[in-house]
Amino acid sequence: MNANAPVDFQQHYLSTWTEPNPDQRRHIIEQLWAPEGKLVISSLGITLRGTAEIAAHIARVHDDMIMSKGLVFSYDQQLPADDALLLRWSMAAPSGDVVGRGVDVVFRNADGQVTTVYMFMGVN
Question: What is the pTM of this model?
Answer without folding.
Answer: 0.89
